[in-house]
Backbone:
């Protein structure tokens, strides 16, 4: 029998989202401050920069999490790495090197509480099956946790030019199956646009799509029929997602500000760096 005090009855902790055995909590204020950090903490709180955590309340279920994300767990919860021998480990290492995720995602199963490390990013709970039979494809580094029965695979661009020009990377993690996944995003859910298409398309100027249905065809195309017209329009090439499915789109590229020419300015901390980053990661393992 486990009883956790000052968690569910703490006025500074707010439950902001819940789905199944997943609960997202948000610390309303950072009370562990010093005279030297108080001013920063005050303005962070005013600008909605708050610590958030994922709490998994398990009753026999199993969840798979990003390596190193566990903060604490209670009760009869057991962890296993589900490596599957040397060959399985090498396969996971290869997948991880090109998707920005951890090579081994530990599985926790049992009855009790599993709390993940706090983050200042926003946490999103997604129903994987709602993205279609071919699952959901994630931008690099978004994965935080999912039900253990969710299958992982690598979604590869059909051609190198799409990866090089589109800035979305050559490989992405794809999740399929029945269950939920939790993503760690730079943007809150209320700022993200969800575009649902049926035999249609969406054209995006920049790598602002953070997740999309695996059934969609991705390509990079000129914004107009002619190359000269694309150059004169100021848009150049655009990312095109075509078919039936969904796209979850950020309002701007991660960590950007708008510049004078009314276009997004890409900073160096974006999660997806296109072809060069994908190739370098796969070769160097970093």
Residues:
């Amino acid at each position: 029998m486990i009883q956790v005090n000052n968690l569910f009855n703490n006025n500074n902790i707010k439950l902001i989202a819940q789905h199944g055995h997943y609960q997202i909590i948000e610390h309303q204020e950072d009370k562990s401050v010093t005279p030297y950090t108080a001013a920063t903490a005050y303005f962070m709180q005013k600008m909605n920069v708050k610590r958030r955590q994922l709490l998994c309340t398990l009753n026999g279920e199993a969840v798979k999490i990003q390596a190193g994300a566990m903060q604490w767990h209670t009760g009869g919860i057991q962890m296993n790495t589900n490596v599957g021998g040397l060959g399985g480990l090498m396969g996971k290492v290869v997948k991880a090197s090109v998707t920005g995720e951890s090579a081994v995602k530990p599985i926790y199963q049992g009855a009790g509480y599993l709390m993940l490390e706090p983050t200042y990013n926003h946490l999103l709970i997604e129903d994987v099956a709602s993205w279609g039979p071919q699952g959901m494809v994630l931008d690099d580094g978004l994965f935080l946790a999912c039900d253990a029965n969710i299958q992982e695979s690598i979604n590869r661009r059909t051609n190198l030019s799409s990866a090089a020009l589109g800035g979305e990377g050559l490989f992405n993690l794809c999740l399929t199956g029945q269950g939920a996944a939790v993503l760690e995003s730079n943007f809150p859910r209320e700022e993200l646009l969800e575009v649902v298409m049926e035999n249609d398309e969406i054209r995006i100027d920049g790598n602002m799509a953070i997740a999309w249905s695996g059934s969609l065809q991705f390509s990079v195309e000129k914004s107009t029929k002619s190359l000269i017209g694309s150059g004169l329009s100021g848009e150049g090439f655009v990312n095109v997602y075509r078919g039936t499915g969904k796209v979850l789109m950020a309002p701007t590229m991660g960590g950007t500000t708008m510049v004078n020419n009314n276009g997004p300015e890409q900073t160096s901390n974006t999660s997806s760096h296109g072809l060069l980053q994908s190739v370098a990661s796969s070769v160097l393992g970093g």
The helical segments are 38-46, 85-99, 160-166, 227-233, 274-284. The longest strand covers residues 52-65. The CA atoms of residues 26 and 201 lie 36 Å apart.
